[in-house]
Each structure stands twice: as structure tokens, then as C-alpha cells.
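Workshop exercise sheet. Pairs work together: one partner reads the sequence aloud, the other fills in the structure field after running the prediction. Swap roles for the next sheet.
Pair: D.N. / O.F.
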Amino acid sequence: MEIEQKQAEQIEYFVELASNRKGSALTLVIVEATSHPSLFAFSEILSLPNILQLEGTPNSRYLDLLRLFAHGTWNEYKSVRVGVDMSHLGNAGHLPQLMPNQVLKLKQLSVLTLAETNKVLPYDVLMQELDVTNVRELEDFLINECMYVGILRGKLDQLRTCFEVQFAAGRDLRPGQLGCMIHTLSDWLSTSDNLLISIQDKIKWADTMSELDKKHQKEVEERVDEVKKTISVKGDIDVRGHEEIYSESGGVMDYDEDRSRPKSKPLLRLNKEAASISLSLTKNGDNNRDSMRGLYLKQLGQPAPLMEIILE
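Structure field:
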């Protein structure tokens, strides 16, 4: 975010500066802009009418220089210097000699160009693109001139000898690149629309399943309530049945009622005379037993079988 803010401030400054200059005075603005350490976008300056008026003049090579920094790379600059056709950069064969700050800036822009299409940059590709002879020099450049500046973020992988790109600042669009970008964005928009429709269908399905689940839960709760009521009614019937049984005459006697009723004394305790008669019978022996038995039975008024058990 900081690099973008600085960039916007510098673009505004140089656009205003170039708008008030003409002819050879513009060449100084172009050199200053392409040497500035915080400026990496040049399309706004390149689109100014007075800048475009340099075409076909003795200062047109500075217009080509500005195009090189907007769209080109360090390798393209080297190719121009040795006579390779670079017509997309204008009359690039007449490019001026670059100053050290401009060389550094163009190499930084070259790394950004590679990072646009590749998220893993092999060291050998970077070394060839930047004219670096060893890994230590390459890593110092990536750390000090790219990552610390804020135009690039990533990870140095010495084991795999590559740089893993996590973020790279954008460059100006090249001629014809706008159409490809519009096509890419249209495809992305179409894919997003299809994904949105799919998500909406999933949401509807989830809502339907939720309603069915609530309905099923309600039915289960109603069934549970019915079972509870059935069990409660059956319990009331059973309790009333037991109450009727115990309330009938001749039924089972309550425990409290049984305790309150007087107890009958055992037969052998009704008449103390029975004990004395029994003892006298024992003393008189067997001869008197038979003769006294009748008297004893008559006094007690008990059946003979029972008294037989008593007298035995």
C-alpha cells in the first residue's frame, strides 16, 4: 500500500511537470522520471499530448526511451543496442545511453515482467535476464533492490535455486495487451456468475433440508407427547381399579384396620382351668386319664380331636 501511494504521488508530480514543458525541456523530465527510485509506471506520462509530439523530432529517442521503461525489459534494451529489431518500442535503435539509476530501474522492471506470468522464477532465468554472474549477487539484488523497495515479495529457495513470488507490482499495459486482459476478465466474470448460481442452488437446497428436518422433529415431538398421554391415561385406569378392589366389602383388610381390631386369644389360653386339669391328669397317671377326659372336654366344649392333641 505504501509503494502504491508513493507511486501515485510521483505520477501526479511528473504529469504536472511534463504538462508545462515542450521540446527539449521534456527530455530532462523523461530522464528524471526514468531515474526516480519510486516510480515504476509511465503510461500516464506517455499519454500526454506534448510528450507524443516528440515523435519525428530530434528528441524522439527520448520518447522511445520512455516507451522502453513503460513496456520493455533490460534484455530488450541490450538487443536494441546490438541492432535487433524492436519495432514495438518505436525507433529504439537510437536509444540514449542509460545512466546507472536507469539501468537499475530497468532491471527491476524486468523482474516484474517475469513475475506477471510465473510465480516460481528459477535462478538461472533471472541471472540471464539481469546479467548477474552468481547466486549471491542475484539474491542481494532481489532482497535489496526489489523486496526492500516494496515492488516484490516472496521467498528465496536456495535448495531449489528459485524465487517464489507472493506479490509483484503491476506494470503498464503493453500495446494489444488490453484486449487480452478484457478477455481474461470476461472469462473470470462468467466463471464467477456460474459459481454464484451454484452457490444459490446450494443455499436453496440447504433451506429445503432444514425445513424438512424441522418438520420431522415436530412430528417426533408430537408422537412423544401422544405416547406420554397414553401412558398417563393407562396409569390412571390402573390406579382406579386398585382403589375399587380394596374398597369392596370382604376385600383385603388394610394394615391399619388389622392392627386396630382386637386379637383372639389362642385356644389353650382361654381357660386357666385347662392347664390345672392337664397337670392333675398327668399326676394321676394313665388310669385316670380316660375317666377325666370326658369331664375336661365337657367343661371346655371343644371337639375331641383337638383335645386329643392338647392332652397328648
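Discussion prompt: The longest strand covers residues 162-168. What would you look at next?
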